[in-house]
Amino acid sequence: MLYRRSSLGQSPWLKYSLIGLAFVIMTLYVLAPLAFIFVRAFSQGWANYLSVILDPYTRHAIGLTLVVALLTVPINLLFGTFLAWLVTRYEFRGRKLLMTLIDIPFAVSPIVAGLLYLLLYGSQGLIGGWLDQYDVQLMFAWPGLVLVTLFVTSPFVARELIPLMQQQGQDEEEAAISLGANGWQMFSQVTLPKIRWALLYGVVLTNARAMGEFGAVSVVSGSIRGQTNTLALHIELLAQDFNAVGAFVSASLLASLALFTLLIKALVEWRQQQQLNTSLEDSQ
Amino acid sequence: MLSFRHRGILPGFGLSLGISLLFVSLVLLLPISGLVIQLSDMSWSQFWWVITDPRVVASYRVTLVSALIASLINGLLGLLLAWVLVRYDFYGRRLLDGLVDLPFALPTAVAGIALSALWASNGWYGPVLDQLGIKVAYTPLGIIVAMAFTSLPFVVRSVQPVLEDLPAEDEEAAASLGASDLHIFATVILPAIWPAWLTGMALSFTRSLGEFGAIIFIAGNMPFVSEITSLMIFIRLQEFDYAAASAIAAVVLLASLLLLLAINLWQNRYLKRLQGRS
After folding, report:
1. Which residues of chain A have a CB within 8 Å of the CB of B167?
2. Is any Cβ of chain B less than 8 angstroms from the Cβ of A88?
């Protein structure tokens, strides 16, 4: 985030009215909805807040949400890192196509994502029908939640890494190899230190989306309380029960996760700026 | 299909290619093939009948019009925010910059329940609007509010870097020749940032077309009035009409892939032009 000095638009009344307008808009548009969640969640006091969280169904939803995230994040971390390495370090035919393909989950409605998995793995589907013979059910059960979440969160790590790795180039990696390092030594000692902050942010983004996904999960879950109900789905169920405070308590947990995500982003940007500054000082 | 021109000495080509292709095939391509198989069981007339059902057509109109308005609103707000964040130094700038990303970080169901309650008659905004005779929650206006909220960051984040990299000389030259601020903005700034601005709005539009979680809480979901296309797919699935759901999904999938492709081509073209100039 840079600040550029120029004479354009610097007359005080214009400057301060534009800044003021920006603050008013962001307060009404973004800050108020966020504050509203916490105000409503605590509207019946701490004791009620805790009792909603300690409710067995809420506890189960929290647990299931954590399980889904714990399974999807490592897989997408691995895939995202390998994919970023592939498309930034080698030229090959089909590279552009591959980069467009991994953007599909960003562009596709999560409902369509859920439908795709339901068609394939549902009991009438190609793979689901076959699994059905062995009494294995993926849809309307937790493995289905993991599969669709894997789909919708697949681009995040790669999307964070690709621009950075492209910009950093590969001279240092090539030097390490020509000095006799093996692949793992090169990656862990040269590449990883350069990309770890972007990697961290990619993981945090993947995690936030994995825990908060709603549309795709609602198609394949069936929302069975105490079985296939994640925290995001729990919000909808409680709202349908006219338990508004309960819904806002669950929402406040996910909103806290969003705030944590933004905090990590600020930290990562700050560290990257520092890294950039030290490397500039080194080169002088 | 894949061949390499330049490999260099770096290891891991085979491994990273293998893992990437395996993942893309299993997670992305295989499920899409499931849709193709499902559709191949339908005749053209069946397909056409499903996707031109009046209620579904109404949902296309609601989705497209709302997404268009939401991305235009975000075009204006995003430009203002990007300008303020890049050009002015003030107390709270970092906070403002951080807040821009909140709609991306906030799960859509959370945004949905917060927005619907906030704009409802017993919320914070509803009572004020009620006096003016405007209803937002549970009307088509709510859809626009939800779409605009969830796709707010796109325009800001597209315009911001271009505005940062803009050379100051052109503006200074125009200013020294006595041009007014508005004139400089229209003749120097706007021509430089409009490709990024348009890209941001196109991304915002694409995202709005696909949004589901935030919208269903606030839309009211009345047939022919405030049903979005994603919801139509969801309703067909709940009726166990997988064929109809697949047909509508195919329309949505094709439209979003074409949009994605167009945005990518457009970005490549104007990036090349930018690089060619420097």
Report:
1. none
2. no
Q: What is the pTM of this model?
A: 0.89
Residue A40 vs residue B175, higher pLDDT: A40
Q: How confident is the model at residue B178 (pLDDT cuts 50, 70, 90)?
A: confident
* Ranges of chain A with pLDDT below 70: 1-7, 283-284
ipTM for the assembly: 0.87
Q: What is the CATH number of the domain that holds B250?
A: 1.10.3720.10
Query: What kind and span of H or E run contains B224?
Result: none
Within a domain: B8: no
Residue B174 lies in a domain: no
What CA–CA distance (Å, rounded) separates A263 from A204? 10
Across the range B183-191, mean pLDDT stands at 86
Alpha helix (H) residue ranges in A104-243: 104-107, 110-121, 126-132, 142-153, 155-168, 171-178, 183-186, 192-212, 215-221, 231-240
Q: How far is A223 from chain B (nearest CA, A)?
A: 12
Tell how far CA B261 is from the center of its chain.
Answer: 14
Residue B138 has pLDDT above 80, yes or no: yes
B213 touches chain A (CB under 8 A): yes
Q: Does residue B204 fall inside a structural domain?
A: yes
> Which residues constitute the domain of residue B143?
44-164+193-277
Cβ-Cβ contacts under 8 Å for A183 (sequence gap 6 or more): B11, B12
Q: Which residues from chain A sit within 8 angstroms of residue B91, using beta carbons?
A: none
Residues of B in contact with A210 (CB under 8 A): none
Mutate to test the interface with B, among A87, A112, A139, A167 (most CBs of B within 10 A): A112
What is the residue-averaged pLDDT of chain B? 88
Residues of chain B positioned with their CB less than 8 A from the CB of A233: 109
- Distance, in Å, from the CA atom of B219 to the CA atom of A238, rounded to the nearest integer, reads 18
Pick the residue of B3, B41, B85, B113 with the most A CBs within 10 A to test the interface with A by mutation.
Answer: B113
Question: What is the band of B278 on the pLDDT scale with cuts at 50, 70, 90?
Answer: very low
Q: Does B219 touch chain A (CB under 8 A)?
A: no
Domain count, chain B: 1
Least confident window among A24-28, B6-10, B13-17, B25-29: B6-10
A271 in B contact zone (CB under 8 Å):
no
Q: Which CATH class for the A55-278 domain?
A: mainly alpha
Chain B positions in Cβ-Cβ contact with residue A116 (cut-off 8 Å)? 31-32, 34-35, 249
Query: DSSP class of residue B5?
Result: E
Interface membership of B106 toward A (CB under 8 Å): yes
Query: How many angstroms separate the CA atoms of A47 and A66, rounded?
Result: 24
Provide mean pLDDT across the span B49-76: 96
Q: Are A182 and A106 in contact (CB under 8 A)?
A: no
What is the pLDDT at residue B3? 44
Are A3 and B86 in contact by the 8 Å Cβ rule? The answer is yes
**A112 touches B at CB < 8 Å:** yes
Query: Is B10 contained in some domain?
Result: no
CA atoms within 13 A on the CB side of B75: 18
Instruction: Find which of A134-138, A181-185, B49-53, B191-195 is predicted with most confidence, using mean pLDDT.
Output: B49-53
